[in-house]
Design brief:
298 residues; mainly alpha; disordered C terminus
Amino acid sequence: MTILLNEFKSDLGRIRRLIDALELLRGFPAHTAPNPSTDPFIEHAVKVHGSTLNCHADIVVLSGTAILYMAGRFEHYIRTVFEELCDSVAKRCNSYDSLPRVMRTSLISMTAEVMKTPRKYGHADKGVEAFIKTLALNLTDRSKLESINSECLSITYDNMRPDTLEELFKRIGAERIWERVGAQATVQAYYQTADPGQAKNKATSDLNKFMDIRNRIAHPSHDVTWPDADTVIKYMDFLEIISDAILQVSKVFEVSHPPPSPSPTATPSPSVTPPPDTAASLAPSTPRNDESLSQVPP
C-alpha cells in the first residue's frame, strides 16, 4: 500500500510544478518585453509574454481544472488502497468463513450489484463472468480462499466525500474510519490541535468543501468562481496529509485481522494399552440422539 501512496504523492507533485509554472506565466504581463532580438530564446520569450497579455484572466481556469484531476486521482487512490486492504485481509484469514461477517455479506451484495449493471462500474461481460466464478468458488469451498472480488467491494456511487469513504470501509468491518484519522498525529499537527474530535471534524469539513469545488468546476455555471493557485495548493497539502493518514489506519485494520488460531492438536503419545478398567473409562461417549449438527457452531 505504501507504493500506492508514493504514486499518489508523485502525481500531486506534478500538479504542484504545473501550478508553479502557471503562476510564473500569470506574473509575466507585469514585465515589459525587451526590444526585438535575434536570440531564439528571447524571441520565444517575447511571444510567450504576448500570449499571456491576451489570456491573463483565463490562466486561473487552468489552475482550477487541476482540482478535477486531484479529485479523480484521490478517489482512485482510495479505491486501490481499499482493494489492496481487502485482498490482504482475505490472505490473512485464509478461508471464506474466517472473513469478517460483514465482509462476507458485502462480497455477495456488491458482486450482485456489479452483475446487474457492469458497465456502470467500468466492467465488461468477461469481467462479470470472472466475478461470478470467484464468488461461486468462495461459497462452494469455504475452507480455503484463493481470491475475492475486491473490485466489487470498492464500487461507489458518489464522489469520495467523508460519508462515502466511511461507508466504503464499513463494508469490511472497518468502523469509525474518520475518528481514527482524526487520532493520527500528522492530522492533528496539520490542524494545530491535540483534540482528535476537532481534527476529525476539520478533516471531514475540508474534504466536503473540496468536493463542492470539484462539482462546481465539473458542472460550471456562468458565475462559477475558479479557485486560485493558493487554494489549489492548500487542498493539495490537505490531500497529502489525509491520504497518508488513511493508509496508516488501513494498515492497523489489516494487522488486527489475522486468521483465527487453529484448535490445538494434541501430540500423539506412545501407544500404551491401559488396564481394562481404565480403557473403559477412556472410551468415547456415544452422542445422544437429540444432539444435531445444528448445535455445533459452523
